[in-house]
Amino acid sequence: MVRNYFKIAWRSLWRHKRMTSINVAGLGIGMAAAVLIAMWVQNELSFDKAQPGAADIYRIKTNLSISKSETWVWETSPYVLGEFASRQIPQITGITRMRGHYRDLSLQDGGKFITEPKAAYVDENWFKMFHYDFVEGSPDAFNKNPFSIILTQSTAKKYFGSQDAVGRVLRIDTNNYQVQAVVKDYPANSSFRFNVLMPIAAQLANPNEKKNSMQWGNYNFITFVKLRPGSSLKSVSDALFAIQHKNHEKDNGSEKFTLTGLTDMHFETDLQSSTFLHGNRTIVNVFIVLAALLLITACINYVNLTTARASMRSKEVSVRKIVGAGRGQLFGQFMSESLVVSLLALVLALVLVELTLPWFRNFTDKEFDNPFNSPVVLLILGGTLLVSFLLNGFYPAMLLSSFDPMSVFRGKSMLNFKDVGLRRVLVVAQFTISVVLIVGTLVIYRQLRFIQTMDPGYNRSQVLSFSFPYWTIPHFDYKKADATLATVKQELKSQATTSEVSMAGSDLVNFGSASSGGFDWTGRPKDFNPSFAPLEADADFQKLMEVKMKEGRWFTNDVADKKAVILNETALALTRLHEPIIGQRFIHQGDTGRIIGVVKDFHFKSLHDKIGPMVISNSTGEGFYIKTRPGSTQAAIAAASKIWKAYFPNSPFAYEFLDESYNNLYKSEQQSSVLITLFASIAIIISALGLLGLAAFAAEQKVKEIGIRKVLGASIQNIVRLLSVDFVKMVLIASIIAFPIAWWAMNRWLQEFAYRISLSWWIFAGAAGIALLIALITVSIQAIKAAVVNPVNSLRSE
Question: Is residue 6 very low, low, confident or very high in pLDDT (cuts 50, 70, 90)?
Answer without folding.
Answer: low
